[in-house]
Amino acid sequence: MGSDMILAASSGGSGGFNLLLLLAVPVVFYFLLIRPQSKRRKEQMQMQSATEPGARVLTTSGIRATVVSVDDDGLLLEIAPGVEVHFVKQAVMQVLKDDEPEELDDEADDDELEADEDAERVDLSKDEPSEVDLSKDAARVEEADLDDEDEAEESKPKAKAQAGEKPSA
Question: Mean pLDDT, to the nearest integer, of 37-43?
Fold first, then answer.
């Protein structure tokens, strides 16, 4: 037991390495994690404070809008023609460039979606008579058509017999 202490004391050269490693870890964390994150935060704050009316922005919730007016702590955004919403400045994630023809792409996508939906569309309007009858009588008629007539006739007497055998309360 005493010889173990002597061996531990004689390996004192690694103490300097341990101290260097202990000091190097926080420095590495600072340069790889803390400094880039604070730089990104400053850029985001500058971008949010520099937003001007007329700019196209993308909010953190994914809404693309146009800035109508800027207050001290908030923005008035137009998300659709005639629809204006108040947001805080921190909700702006990105200022979009005016070079992007978003409206043309959206219209083309809408046309494609409408063509796809027309093929799969089911009309549920109340004005026209529905092709699908959801009443219970129609379901019973369909079941009778699907089953053989013999099976349908056999099941009816069994149901009546079972109901008759049950004692009444």
Answer: 94
